[in-house]
Amino acid sequence: MSKMFTFSDHEMVLIFGLLGNIVSFLVFLAPLPTFYSICKKKTSEGFQSIPYVVALLSAMLLLYYGLLKTNAILIITINCIGCVIEVLYLIIYIIYAPRKLKISTLALILVADLGGLGLTLIITNFIVKSYYRVHAVGLICAIFNIAVFAAPLSIMRKVIKTRSVEYMPFFLSLFLTLCATMWFFYGLFDKDNYIMLPNVLGFLFGISQMILYLIYKNAKNKVEANSNEQQEYGDDDGNKEDFPSIVEMKENIV
């Protein structure tokens, strides 16, 4: 009888860590079309820099966590890459943004990124004992990542209210869900709750976004079609209901 081939926890950590690196790298590259457009038109086109400032802080905190944690080379590699990519995005943004947005973006980088990382370094190096340092940084990363994963709630609310998925691309939601899944299993097999637990929330929000996309991807077209149909035939029947009013009432209930 042949033995069943099984993987050790260490091998599973390596597998999911590598998969997590690949998917995370694709997520980091997702804004490339936006920045290609900015470079081509030589204007920031009203895009906001906040997502890239937040992504840079997240990558820097996780890089610091990986440096403190033992055997965390896969956390270090992807977040090194992430830091470089986000810095490049912000440089391009600052070059082509109007003066007011240049100043506000530089202020955000100074306060959020440099200030946030600096404060974390001060607290963990001068206040927290060395034995608890990795746990303190891991907890900070987990709390910050939970806040980042919760950010799409506003977009999900907008999708429900407008019945439009224009601002919630399906493939970005898919890759974010895959990313959360890979890092959840990495944390599970590595017995790292600071990586595992936030990605449970990331997975749930990602699945919710994809479900919303499937529900509402054609909703706006249906509303417009029904509205056009009513405009065409509504004058012949004074008893027809006002379809847009019904839609508006449903949106207000939500």
From TrEMBL:
One GO cellular component from the entry?
plasma membrane
Q: Name one GO molecular function term.
A: sucrose transmembrane transporter activity
Looking up InterPro entries in the UniProt record yields:
SWEET, SWEET_rpt
Gene3D superfamilies referenced in this protein's UniProt entry, alphabetically: 1.20.1280.290
| Segments crossing the lipid bilayer | 12-38, 50-67, 73-96, 108-128, 134-155, 167-189, 195-216
Q: What is its main location?
A: membrane
| Coiled coil segments of this chain | none
* Tagged with keyword Transport: yes
PANTHER family named among the record's database cross-references? BIDIRECTIONAL SUGAR TRANSPORTER SWEET9 (PTHR10791:SF134), RAG1-ACTIVATING PROTEIN 1 (PTHR10791)
Q: Which family does it belong to?
A: Belongs to the SWEET sugar transporter family.
Q: What is this protein called?
A: Bidirectional sugar transporter SWEET
Q: Which organism is it from?
A: Cicer arietinum (Chickpea)
